[in-house]
Amino acid sequence: MKKELKIYRCAHCGNIVELIDGHVTPSCCGQPMDLLKPNTVDAAQEKHVPVVRREGDKLIVEVGSVHHPMTQEHYIPYIWVVFDNKVGRAHLTPDDEPVAEFFPGEGPLKVYGYCNLHGLWETDID
Fold first, then answer.
1. Any signal peptide, and if so, which residues (predicted)?
2. Which of 87, 34, 43 is nearest to 69 (CA)?
3. Is 121 among the domain residues?
4. Per-position b or e across 67-105, b if 16+ CB within 10 A of its CB
């Protein structure tokens, strides 16, 4: 069974929660959290859509065909890769490049990048 990753954000404090195959809406700060829908914010796609390349067994994910800014005010805190029944996550800080490496093996996958200002972005790889 394939896993489905759902990412929620608290509208009050900005907390992020990842839910795998859950059927409930998490709450934070006394309110239901918002389910993030990928690629729905009007922002520069060239800086937000994950770009994926394979080097042997390694999958390299770069957020944006033009690297996304990584400042305290505007950055990519998370990159996820969903494959088979597994989820890989990289946590980034403003001091990092918007790049992560994973070893998912062969097959289809979904890649997500989360921008703290412009939300969730997704790329599907067959």
1. none
2. 43
3. yes
4. ebebeeeebbbbbbbbbeeebbebebeeeeebbbebebe
Tokens of 73: 């005010």
60 and 52 Cβ atoms separated by less than 8 Å: yes
> How many other C-beta atoms lie within 10 A of the C-beta of residue 26?
15
Determine how many CB atoms are found less than 10 A away from the CB of residue 14: 10
| Domain membership flag for residue 20 | no
Split into its structural domains, the chain has a count of 1
Find, among 33, 16, 42, the residue nearest to 118 by Cα: 42
Q: Give the structural domain span for 72.
A: 37-125
pLDDT digits (tens, 9 = 90+) for 60-88: 999 999 999 999 999 999 999 998 888 99
**Gap between the Cα atoms of 65 and 9, Å rounded:** 25
